Amino acid sequence: MSKMFSLKNAAIFAIPLAILIGTASYILYSVHKQGKILDDVAFMVQNSRPLVTDREQLNELFSQYISAGGLDLAHATPNQSTSKRAGAKNAEDYIPSPSDERIYGNPNAQFYIIEYSDFECPYCKEHFPQLLDLVDSSSGNIALVFKHVPVHGQASQVESLAAECAAEQNGNPGFYKLARAIFENTQSDGRGLTTPLDVLATRNGFDGKRLIECVNAARPAQKIGADVREAAGLNIQQTPSTIVVHGDRSALVQGMVNGTGIMQMMAQLVDGGTPEQKSK
């Protein structure tokens, strides 16, 4: 068994459970019920209490949450969602800080793409390199911000922790380097990686032992929990979901949208319109 699933520290089961409950809460409950649930999640993340004793209990609990809502988001298709405005927020509400957000590209770019993603989501796997290419070809005009929504169970939670642990070693460049490697090596749909996590980290220039220790200690759990809470507040129900921000205007697309679609959204935001962009 690979090290990525050999999580002997009991606290690791508390953190994924907290993240699971937070994720499941925004999927299964209406907005007016989310507040208390998410407060409970934040409390559990903060206190890291071991609420389950083995992975079987963890998976069973997650399955109960999904079944209760009659949903199967792990196999949802992009065509099931349509776009909507992200809401009447001020621009500063979306502007991320390089010190605590995962930014790729120019932090002072005029456009931000905020991506709510899951390392085990097959559509996210396809979308991620497209976004990197879009940023790389933008001459500093577009930046990407990655947000975690790990809805595909234990594998996606561990991979989210690992990417954040890479950032612990080498900042945002480290995060995106390992994130790219994870997406390239994941089997998707909760099946995990084809290469043991410590080996994958070492191959990409990280201290594999240190990274596994970070994952086992679940040090980035509060960051991941905060991303999930933010997604819940926006009523995001599918991965990937993308917010495009320009000045005081923004638009949200739930489901995968290609680079051409994102550029069209940007043009409409510049013109002052409200994009009505459907997912691919």
UniProtKB/TrEMBL annotation:
One Pfam family hit: Thioredoxin_4
Signal sequence residues: none
InterPro entries in the record: Thioredoxin-like_fold, Thioredoxin-like_sf
All residue ranges annotated as the Thioredoxin-like fold domain in the record: 100-244
Domain of life from the UniProt record: Bacteria
Family named by the database record: Belongs to the thioredoxin family. DsbA subfamily.
Name recorded for this polypeptide: Thioredoxin domain-containing protein
